[in-house]
Write a structure and sequence with these properties.
The protein is built from 24 helices and 23 strands. It is an alpha+beta fold. Belongs to the class-D beta-lactamase family.
Length: 701
Amino acid sequence: MKILFIEKLREKNIFNRWTFLYILFISLVLILIVRLSYLQIVKGDYYYELSEKKLMQKANLEAPRGIIYDKNGRPLADNRPAYVLQIMKTQQLRTENQKRDFTKKIIEIVNILNKNGDKIINQFKIDINPIRFNFGIKDKKLAKKVEIQWKKDREIPLNFSAQQAFEFLRKKFYIPENLDLQTTLQVMAIEDMLFYNYYQMYQPVTIAIDISMKTIAEIEERRRDFSSVNIEAKAVRVYKDAIYNAFVVGRIGKITQEQYEKFKDKGYSQDSLIGVDGIEKRCEDYLRGKDGLQLIEVDKFGRINDVKIEKQPTKGANVYLTIDSKLQKVAYESLKKVLENIRNGDYGERFQKANSGAAVVIDVKTGNVLALTSYPSYNPNIFIKGITTSEWNKLINDPTRPMFNRAIAGVYPPGSTFKILTAIAGLQEGVIKPDEKILDTGRYMYYAKSGFTPACWIWNRYHTTHGWVNVEDALKVSCNVFFYETGRRLGIERIVKYAQLFGLGGKTGIQLDGESNGILANEENKKKIFNQPWYPGDTILAAIGQSINAFTPIQMASFIATVANGGTRYQVNLIDRIVDSNGKVIYKSVPKVLSKVKMYESTKKAVFEGMKSVTSEEGGTARQAFKDLPFTVAGKTGTSQYSNSSAAHAWFVGFAPYDNPQIAFAIVLENGGHGSYAAYVARDIIDAYFNLPQQEEKKLP
């Protein structure tokens, strides 16, 4: 009986629990029905109106960059109006159909751009024909490291080849397999740019710059189809006389992810343009204006209905350089002409590898740079519409290195131009006297017992000597033996001391990135760089600009400017002033003295006379180039052998006029053969600077 009672009680409890749950369920359903009825019937109109309301989003309005002018107010980097095509992310793409539809729209946009000849920005890291990775990096280890990170960012298996990665992204972006390879690459490049660079809602991403009116018309006709596309009139950068000024002015480019993370707090967006090199980079904070603010009205479908400007942008400041763009053009064209003449043998010997060089001109009284050019150069305007990785690789792999600024980064043995320094040091230290004569015997015999007997150039070439020469004569005829002996008497410590006083072997501090230090020959550097001991023979070779001496053209021009003005070394300078958008001067350069060398009058007279005789007297190594000049020039040729398989580099340095120095210059011609050939570039520069009539080319009959 007891057991039966317990069983009945248990059944009753179970029944009660199920009854409770059933009643609870019915109650919840009734509550839900009542709530939905309330929302749809009572509040239906309210929520319908709310769903139809427009959404307002904020986005930056890019400010025009400031203009870069030369010293005479000629624009070198300017802005021009152009239309750009941008894509905005106005809704999240969650479903497969949404992603397919988005890609379909991108394909249509790409087809329109291609049909009308508009260039699409393509910084994608995969090339086609054949399909391969292309990160634009020569260092294989670094390229592999970048490749791994690139795959990680895109969730691509690390062991995938370029072909596999390409197919992986094709599927991820829902790009049809029957689409041609070139269009597929362009679509993939756009989608990669949108979705793997932290693409944000309502922040426009530029995919094409300076688009045609045909493209604009087609896009506008189908405005409802392309709701995420925005066509905007913007100030697009344009470089005047670009090839002549590329290494000074520099260029702008799209901000990298690393730069964005660094500068986003300054108001940069992921679509911002930023200075990449040259003055564009150095003066970025001035040239870049203050962005404005625009309000973007979007409907419930994510379509852009209207764009309103809430805050106007403020244009960047203008930068005025010390460069004379006309002189710059003359220097560049002269380098091109003289190098061609050398290859043709117009000056005597023919040197087929004479393809490149550099020239620098400095105001001796201020340190201001009047011309700084490197040949060959490149046109920075090609970057404005976007350059592909393949185009970039072609440029940086060009054997003539058109993007290498030889004027500040090229390091060359100075050859006999260094004899000016040795002469000054010898006279200042009293190891030689202005009228002292040293006998050139063809070979320098001081170290003959050790088997080291370096020869003078005239002995090697003609098997003759210069005889008895003083310092003026030695500079005029570039006598090695005279300066071997002067160098031995000085010792390397004193040679180095004077070289450093004149700024050789160290950066000038010019306002450009990529400047080289150069190499100053001494025991420490030889051990550090070559792991070799220093010998007495190194000292006398250093005295004539050999050993391991190697300097940049900008260093040599600064050195000669210091000699020309009597020993005051000024800070080399490219920027004259900066003026804000209201016309207020916010920066003005003032000549800055770095050091002074108190040269004796007797030292200056002897060295100046020697340099004058180089260009004006019979037997002077550069006399031919300066015939018929209405005033005298001081100069020095230099020929530096650096390889047994190539011709020597050709140097010419000097200042003008001789009796009232205004400009100093340094010219180097890679594989130019003879320093006297480089003097023809100096002659063209002098003619242009002093507004002299152009001379006929000094070619051999």
